[in-house]
Records
---
Amino acid sequence: MFPQGQHPPARHGEVPAALPGAVHLPWTDLTRTVRTGMPVYPGDPAVRISPALRLAEDGVEVAHLRLGSHTGTHVDAPAHTVSGGRTVDRLRLDELVGDALVLGFEGLPADAVITAGMVAALVGDDAARVPERVLVATGWDRVFHDPEQSLHHPVLTAEAAEVLWGAGARLLGVDTLSPDPTVPPDRTVPADQPGLSVHEVFLGRDGVIVENLTGLAGLRRPDHDDPGATDRGASWSAPVWFGVFPLPVHEGDGAPARAVARPHPGSALVDGLA
């Protein structure tokens, strides 16, 4: 038995029953609500939710869901772009849950490019500061429901992805349709654009990508003296605790997911909430 208020240590792959010092911290839900007709990546299946059983006639409510594996907030498993890559049901919980670093870039225009230099300016030379999970906040989640403008979201360069991978990141989350350029099926990728180069860096090396997160900008620290945080006006960073939970679709290339975050224990923001 463990004393009151304490919990046994989690076994490998399990989520701890409680995080030290984090019991009363507020959660931020980073998940898109799944609904009929919601925006999807160009060419993906449309979302349709319809009644399968009704309470009045059948005694229960059951919905029929028609949607693609990359609907709303979702996880890309390596199998999404890599032949024979790991499928979403084989991702481990310890990959998807734990310390994360949010990198924020505000005021980016349409089709903006997040370069290796921009990332390095926030990450710095301290590789130990970069956890296995990095989330990129562009603020472009605000135009998710605009079918044209949302296609012109900011993107990362392959070199920026390499900086993150080299610093130890193995999961990359974004608040856009993709970390790479989004090109509708009826258009061709311009010769000067690299296609799925960020996917190649992360999924090609057995990492994970999370797309269509929302609300990352709300994780920006109000206290600029917060240990572990960086604030340079238009760019900022903040350490958080993050978890993303995809449906374990058998041999799936990806799956819709619930994603949450809260302030990192020991930060100045957390101390102010205690």
---
Amino acid sequence: MRIGERCVAVGSRGTGVSVQVVHTPRVEEWRRLYEVAASAASWVAAHRWSYDETIARLTVADIRRKLDLSLRDRLLEIGCGTGASLSLVLHEDQLGYGFDLCEAQIRRAGDFAVDRARLRLGVAEAGALPVASGRFDKVLCYSVFQCLPDDDYARRVVAELIRACRPGGLILIGDVFGVMERQRQRLIGHGHNERVVDAFLSPLLPMWHARHRLQASNNRVKPRHYRRGFFRGALHEIACDVSFLPQRIPGRSASRCRYDVLIRRHG
């Protein structure tokens, strides 16, 4: 894995920390996609969320509920994009911290009515966070793991999220693509109606998660999919409790094929 140029935190309220960013063809393809998306007119489109703002806000509410965020919590988000969803997760006047690999995303924060006085945003890779160990009460990493280059790097990211969180704190790895999502994308990519595909796949979910390994989709940039056993294996030497939570977000049909991972570090 090749180490690329140095990237620095941006904006008047950035972290001021320069970090090494890993560059692989896969990571670069995803970074370019988000760089292009950063020019979108809305924060939802800039984050490449494929639903409207009403559903996006329901998604944010689901994140906040699972994190059980209190006013006293220090929250870090990895893959924060423009910071818009982070600002919505936070309570009023609460300070939040975020890193993203794409500098163009960070620079758009002020364009979406994001209160930069409440956010400390910077550019960094998820596998090498420029933060002290145990600094945060809650750590969020939402809709990021599908962009990671391989299992080894994904395990490294899990370890970094754990390291950044204090003992007794919570880590939420959200919007993980399960193996069923792989088949869903293939069917939609072949021209099948999205609602028909979801209606067809829904009864198969329990059986499919347990028994089937599916071929990758034909998308140019292929998202990575994870069985729950991957996270169990990545956490087996770490003192923590792990739960796999379903996504039940009204209007988000794709959430049936995805899941969240909630990790509580032992105190």
